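Hi support team,

I submitted a single chain yesterday and got back a structure, but I'm not sure I'm reading the token output correctly. Could someone confirm the output below corresponds to the sequence I sent? I've pasted both exactly as they appear in my results page.

Thanks,
R.
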Amino acid sequence: MNNGTRIVVPVVLVLCTVGLWNRVSAAEKAVALPSPAVDAPLAATSATQTAVLAGGCFWGVQAVFQHVKGVQKAISGYSGGSSSTAEYETVSTGRTGHAESVAIMFDPAQITYGQLLKVFFSVAHNPTQLNRQGPDFGTQYRSVVFYANDEQKRIAESYISQLEQAKSFRRPIVTQVVPLKAFYAAESYHQNYAALHPDNPYIAFNDAPKVEHLRKEFPDLYKK
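Hi R., thanks for writing in. Yes, this is the structure output for that exact sequence:
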């Protein structure tokens, strides 16, 4: 990231365990949303930028953004806590301050930060669920926009306000908008998990439908 924010890639491999997925039989439905009234224009040249978003289990959020045009790479990881606790077993206690997050490297000449947020709020997760997401419970599954600069903060806060005023959701949006201090890449086992394990029941019930919602709701942004 070119703004001085650290992205750290740990080398420890940890076995992933799943939350209380068997209590829920399907993913959230997509929500049709207006485009952001406040957004950065498409850039004249390609210079990779990064958005860091948290919305439940990072497997599904990563899977969605891997299918978005203009996204060069999406990495599952942790944000909100310290480097010493940025590993799956510890984050899963819900006491580290970390949220399971995804760093989205994108081409601002192809897609704007506001368009990424529209996908995030529409199909990647449900922004009205507090300290949980679908079948998974705990502060590590909270909804967060980790902004890297003042422009990202302005766009995120404006869009949330716009969605609230439009009553786009039946319940209040609980998404936090906080500064990004660091992003720590998750263990290799977690990277590309949905793509590598399409037959996993958790993926089939909770994450694959999100990608399908993206294809249907955002045909101009969807890539195979």
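A quick pointer for reading it: The chain has one domain: 6-15+34-198. Let us know if anything else looks off.

Best,
Support desk
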